[in-house]
DNA sequence: TATTGTTATACTCTATAACTATA
DNA sequence: TATAGTTATAGAGTATAACAATA
């Protein structure tokens, strides 16, 4: 063998670091009554006003019944509105409310705090290098920061295949 | 503000990358009848022969009833044995069987494949830099590659605090 | 009485299937 | 009949509480 005795633990540690990051973010947004899943949905709806629940399910790589639960939560908190589409009354248009848009600022602050907390042990040059490589890997693997279902691939249908 | 318009998405992307890595590992060990949780437990038991379930629960930052389920699964698959401690018959000594030790090789191969798949988009120098920084972050945040409960801190009791 | 492990139970998350209303 | 959304139900995964065996 050509490589030294170092075990291949980078993959394990990436998993652990990701779980740590997710837990930290969850903790930071909990006071706002949000979870990583609902926060991601709020961001998507704010970016794509008038989205239908069916489209949102596709975007999340999830199923309509799951979307009902997530939107129920956001609507109950007054952050998102459901409006029947007059053109086709089967559709619900989803939009962020004023309160929902204000919460986006809170989410941004939480994301900044999360990133700062995670990167805190590093030297400034290491932070730059790490952030750049993480961005490259996320892009190469097709990951979407707003999708907190499964493992967040943009083309969520192919999750089972290698 | 002093920084440019770049959003602080490194934390999000670390979460997504971690979930992606975990899903890939889960997929790789599924044919062996293992999950990330049971694989981590098998590794711990192999490294610390004779561990009790109570000690394992502490090690995992989990509860005894959870350990029962995990050990049941490994024992049912013939990978781990429970033996009553003659000195104190309340304790169960946990040990990896021969089959369990053989599966450790499979786990190592899976971890190698997982790491290779994740790092594949990077240049060789980037891989080195990334692995070193991930190791530094994991150490600084007290993460344990065998703990797949919650977010895997070695001192699992303090999970709720910042 | 205290400790180890187990069982019973419940809660969360997420999916499938059946159903309602619209078209 | 086909589609959007909802409800009912079920299955993981993980926790708390009650319990049995042992000390």
Automatic annotation (TrEMBL), chains A, B:
InterPro entries with a match to the protein in the record: HTH_MarR-typ (IPR000835), MarR/SlyA-like (IPR039422), WH-like_DNA-bd_sf (IPR036388), WH_DNA-bd_sf (IPR036390)
Ranges of residues in domain HTH marR-type: 1-139
Pfam families given in the database record: MarR_2
The protein, known as: MarR family transcriptional regulator
Organism, scientific name: Leucobacter iarius
High-level lineage: Bacteria, Bacillati, Actinomycetota, Actinomycetes, Micrococcales
